[in-house]
Amino acid sequence: MTNLIDIENLGKRYGDFVLTGVNLAVEPGTVVGFIGSNGAGKTTTLKAALGLITADEGTVRLFGQVAAPGSAAVEELKSRIGVVLDTCAFPSTCRVGDIASIGRVAYATWDDARWNELTALFQLAPKKKVADLSRGMGMKLSLAFALAHHPELLVLDEATAGLDPIARDEVLDILRDFMATGERGILMSTHITSDLEKIADEIVCVDNGRIMFAAPKDVLTDEAGVARCRAADVAAVLEAGFFAPGTARVLRHDYGCDLLVPDRFAFGRAFPDIPVDKATIEDYMTLTLKGESR
Ligand SMILES: Nc1ncnc2c1ncn2[C@@H]1O[C@H](COP(=O)(O)OP(=O)(O)OP(=O)(O)O)[C@@H](O)[C@H]1O
């Protein structure tokens, strides 16, 4: 099956910041979570992938096709994508009820019934001005707009930021519903990694403009673990050759050391006296990015 989006060797320079060699793909039926610290390059990647900024290098294939920027072909491909960026894109004087008219002009596939359904679900009153919406309500408005034209791919940049936990769960339910056909996909950047634990299939982590790891979510959260070690335990594990030199990641705390282990079951068998917990996406990212390499 053709990927919904293929980003190959993407590069972009902003002064000292260099995004380079970014590869990322969304297969039909998958949700890809895109994570990384502030300023790591997530928004730059997403904007370059959508042609909102010009990349310095790389190729972006939408639905299997590469089309020239600004061409009718690329506009047609982009109309099959629903986009939510981290700011509400509608004019502040617009009222919620007026926004459907923008959708009707912009998208041949615009669906008024779906728009009405989503704005009602999100409790967005038609008379409310965009300027008077809270940040969370603005995100819901953008999400309703992105979904009401029945996209095949959703690209979300921090779309659940600013939403309270109940609203985030509502949004996650809508995203699950969107994925139910098995042919669509989502590429979403977020700092709320617990949302990705609920919905993502793949996790891609960028740091300082480079991809640091890309793996199925289950590998990170089911197989990987964090061993709670004393300093002597770390030395023993390294001495036993459990890790190839330089591949262990250790974070020291006042009360001991956390050691990232790729297979917590194998670790538990090899070192039954060292407690090992399941890793979260946040553990995996923090230890990979901030852990001392041993
Ligand atoms: N228009 C721009 N002009 C100059 N530098 C920019 C521009 N946009 C982004 N940058 C720089 O590019 C780097 C990456 O920014 P980007 O917004 O992609 O990070 P991010 O991973 O999305 O961060 P955050 O999680 O904070 O949203 C940062 O150093 C930022 O200052």
TrEMBL record:
Record-given protein name: ATP-binding cassette domain-containing protein
Pfam families: ABC_tran
Stored SMART domains: AAA (SM00382)
Classification lineage: Bacteria, Bacillati, Actinomycetota, Coriobacteriia, Eggerthellales
Species per Swiss-Prot/TrEMBL record: Adlercreutzia mucosicola
PANTHER family documented for this protein: ABC TRANSPORTER ATP-BINDING COMPONENT, ABC TRANSPORTER ATP-BINDING PROTEIN ALBC-RELATED
Alphabetically ordered keywords of this record: ATP-binding, Nucleotide-binding, Transport
Domain of life: Bacteria
Coiled-coil regions, chain positions: none
